User: What shape does this take?
Amino acid sequence: MKYLLNVKNLSVEFNRRDDRILAVRDVSFEVFPNETVAIVGESGCGKSALAKSILGLLPETAKIINGSISYDDNDLLSLKEISLRSIRGKEIGMVFQDPFLSLNPTMKIGQQICEALFAHRVSSVKYAKSICYKILSEVRIKNPEAVFEMYPHQLSGGMKQRILIAIAVVCKPKLLIADEPTTALDVTVQTQILKLLKDLQKGYNMSMLLITHDMTVVADICDKMIVMYAGEIVEMGKTQDIINSPKHPYTRMLLDSVPTLDKHKVFNRLKPIDGFLPIIDSPISYCSFAQRCPSAMQICARKRPNLTKDKQCTRCWLYDKRKSSKKPDGSQITQEVVQAGK
Amino acid sequence: MTRFLLKKLFIFLGAMFSISSLTFFILKAIPGDPFVQAENLPEEVLKSLYAHYGLDKPIMVQYLQYLKGIITLDLGPSYVYQGRTVNQILRDGLPVSAILGIQSFFIAVLFGGLLGSFAAIKKNKWQESAIVIFTSILVSIPNFVLASLLQYFLAMKLHIFPIARFDSIMHTFLPTMTLSALPIAFISRLIRNSLLETYKKDYIQTAISKGLSPNKVFFYHTLKNSLIPVVAYLGPLLTYLITGSFVIEKVFAIPGMGMWMIQSILARDYTVIMGLTIFYSFVLLSLNLATDMACAFLDPRILLFDKKRDILNEPIV
Amino acid sequence: MNQLFKPLNKSDFLPLSFKTVSKNSYSFFNLRFKVGAFIFLLILLFAIFGPMFSGYTYDEINLESKNLPPSKEFIFGSDELGRDVFTRFCYGARISLSIGLIAAIIDLVIGVVYGAVAGFLGGKIEELMMRICDSLYAVPYLLYVILLTVIFSPGFVTILIALTITGWINMARIVRAEILKIKNQEFILAAITIGASKRRIIFNHLIPNVSTTVITTLMLSVSQAIFTEAFLSFLGLGIQAPVSSWGTMICDGISALYYYPWRLFFPAMAITLTILACNLIGESLKSSFKVI
Assistant: This one.
């Protein structure tokens, strides 16, 4: 099956006066039609930078230093601005994190939605308005006609997020990127929004790239999951597989750290992950998680692991094929590993 | 919207009333009497002068007559220049000052807006730094200094413009340039800062992600939200134009209201001072009311919260 | 060989720097601040020490040495009464700087207290206080100043009074706005909960936190005060002869502009530079405080 979005070896760098931060390091993945992919990771691990680079929304201080992003056979990184504009909104839609700040406060809601339509070859105002009412009811807003004339400050957070979703899907894109759409909302509203996203995805036959730091969200609605740490992918595969048997120590610790209401475990201590996310400023030749990893080995400090080539791939020396061929006491090491260690 | 308007109107009338009363009582409190400048007049002449001007009546009566005068748009006579009334002075001086003021207003807004937008667009390039430095210096030059320098270099030495008076269009160039210099610098800084602030906001990102062209993003999203500080500045701008006109009219010998104001102050012509002050206040309060309405139109949140954002942290002269 | 897969001793492994703060912290004393401060100090030097070097006083009339261009005898030249322009210039510096600083500080004290009290007390009292401010602010500042100089005879003290009577309003408004921002934060609630008195909260919590904005506004008030004083003196409503303010010097200088330009040039340059210096300092403080 042909992919919809193909990201290959993407690296993004942020430059501020003296600082250089490698936000995204050598990331590759694919999104197929009608598929929901989640990108999970801590704040600062590069997921938002990744999402923004797809649509060219990176700030001026950011530079894509390597890699390619293909959408439907077009290399998005080499497209001229005009062509990129025709993709934004129409082929790929994006929902942003903070509903309170992402809407123009001095423009009516209806106008903001219709703008997206007018930018993509809808010229009749009446027609645009009717599409607008339709989409507002699809995102489950109770009185579309009234909301059409309102300003953002007259609406609640949940409603604002629905409006943002409406703006993103009104031109029926094939791919929807949702950058932490529920982070700024209450838990009850979160569930509603997630359900809405899932329904829209099914109803419009879209693919969805959902970026979040909340594992519980992922389990519900995503087919595939990508775990990111310090700018690189550390585990990737089917959601069910990863949640049932996480491979990478980081993934395991993330799943363990989710608080539970299970009455047998509720009085146990929470299991946080000690330490901080490192900020990488130049390419490194060791595992970025080694410092916080409970199963770190000597090789982890000397060489950077590559992604394994399974269905549920992971970037960890514990699963390197060469290691798996040895006995537990480590007596049978192949020559390659010895070379690798030097 | 109507409640907002009524509230502002009420404040307007209240302010006019307080200013008129304040001015009246302040000037009544000045020791000495207005005819002291004249040579020693005999008792009877003084008495009849007092009666003529109604100055022998008790203070409250004078106050009420004065208020009545304001409402009927009769601002009283001049004590120093016999036979002249404030209304006459207004009729003579207002057109001149108004032309100067309106010209400077539009030039300031137009050029300031363009300069500031240009500086914001060319962010991090040399044009931006040049404009920033230029406007910083321009903002610091006092208008009387600039007036004298321009008069010296452009009129006296280079003979490009006439030196003084206000008889032709060429005559308006130098005064307008001088008067609009500081507002141009200030407005351009204001708009540049505002544009840069707005540009960082999240909703600009949303607009771009919809696939809008850069022009649309700029005009409908960035610019529209950046205009409020500029509109809010228009009130103080007018204040500046009025006080600046005192200086400009003096340096360029322009027979406008500013010149009359200064003359009456130096001559202690109290009624004229009072009348002109009230007139100026009326003009200012009206324009402030208009800009409040414009701000509410630009940003509907103001209607709800009735806050006018205090973006103007720099004191305006 | 199998050592490679032995557990890692974390203390041996320190390559990843956990830098969470950018090593490039915005310098407080950046270029704008330095330039502004330098100019200001230079003018201050002129003001304090200038007259000692010239050997003249500001009103010493030497009719034989009228209208001389700058020379070794008269550093900035002489005016039409033979007075040394340099000494008068330095006295003008004294007047401008002292009026600027004193007026700004008085405005600061009144404005900060008024704004803090209004912001903190809130409710009807704040409404009333701000309404008073708004009505006073509606009339141009300068009209009040002019009215006051008419009532009392013009002079140093009159100008000072005139400047401070309305100058505090701007400061009060800004302070109130800042207070409103801070008031709703939780550490104020905490202080109230443990029983701090209102006075204590205002002086120990609110005021220190608005100090950054206040200092910035202070510098800008100084520049405005200097301008206003010169403006008034220029129009003849301020400092009177024979005391020389930069404003009066510029006014005199205009009439002699064609033949004796130095009489205008020096005070004009000086006042522009002084106002520029204050603005630069104020702006640099504003941007560096924003980062902090």
Notes: Chain A has twelve helices and eleven strands. Confidence is low (pLDDT under 50) at residues 324-342 of chain A. Chain A has two domains: 5-103+162-242, 260-342. Residues 13 and 22 of chain A are 4 Å apart (CA to CA).
